[in-house]
């Protein structure tokens, strides 16, 4: 699929897709007969995972390291697992912080409603 189609399906911009390719987050994308990028379904699956990592706050540098390890094959599975487990703990911690923040907001809203 073209870069525009991949952008639409992934929710990322064409600029972001080119950037991800340039910094090594995605493998060099195949080209069609005219030399245009030709994204595969497998590319979209990887982009979806990268989007989840980014949305949950993983730094780009860590994402690049993870992508590098992926290209290293099954011998890097242990290190990848460790990275994901550490990231999961950071996400859980952030969720707990957000839950506390939400309680504070709810309390403030309830205070305003009681006065209005």
From TrEMBL:
Provenance organism: Nonomuraea jiangxiensis
GO molecular function: DNA binding; DNA-binding transcription factor activity
Residue ranges the record marks as coiled coil: 81-115
Residues covered by the HTH merR-type domain: 1-69
Protein name: DNA-binding transcriptional regulator, MerR family
A matching Pfam family: MerR_1
Sorted UniProt keywords: Coiled coil, DNA-binding
